[in-house]
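Can't paste images in this forum, so I'm doing it all in text. The chain is below; anyone willing to post the predicted structure tokens underneath?
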Amino acid sequence: MRFGTRFGVAVALGLTALSPLSVHGQQVPTPVIVTVDVQQILRDSLVAKDVQAQMDQRTDRYTKEVTSQENDLQKTQEELEKERTTLAPDAFNERMRDFQRRYDALDNRVQATRQALQQSYNDAMTKVENTAVQIIADIAAERKANLVVAKAAVLFEAPELDITQEVIKRLDVKLPQVQLATPQIAPTAAGAAPPPPAGGVLPSIGGPVLPQAPR
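Text version of the structure:
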């Protein structure tokens, strides 16, 4: 379950009662509300920025590696195109099969890397979310609040109800950094179809048209 859905969604409209309510003969405490902007926490806290920076660095590094290998494959493809009419069919077919194996291996590795990076990011952000939830609970207890409302569900609020900046401040002190785990990428057999990626991180390598064998 993602962070934005951890809190019950409540719209602070119609809460006009200033004294305890009675439901089925039992008193319900007067609402004491605080609001929090979940997306702002995940965007502006030091730890969230650090996790994103690590992710960007790793993505850039893997993208450069993939681009270099793509360029090598492109050169091989161009050579095959030139030699299509000069090589014997058997020799050409063997070179084409080798090209296909290299292409498939790279494509599979890109997909596996994409998944592994996304999983590392998700794991790191889960630590951020869990810590933020605990901080929100602490602040709510200090204010004796009995209702925490996601700011996205609120149409109007008094500024003092918003605890977002206080959450960010405490989160920056309690958890300034989370180290992204090194992706563990299992080798995939050429031609094997990897499972669908969890999210876009690396660009998929292009799909060159394989040269046709001479006849």
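Strands lie at 21-23, 26-28, 33-36, 147-150. The domain at 3-174 is CATH 3.30.910.20 (Protein Binding, DinI Protein; Chain A).
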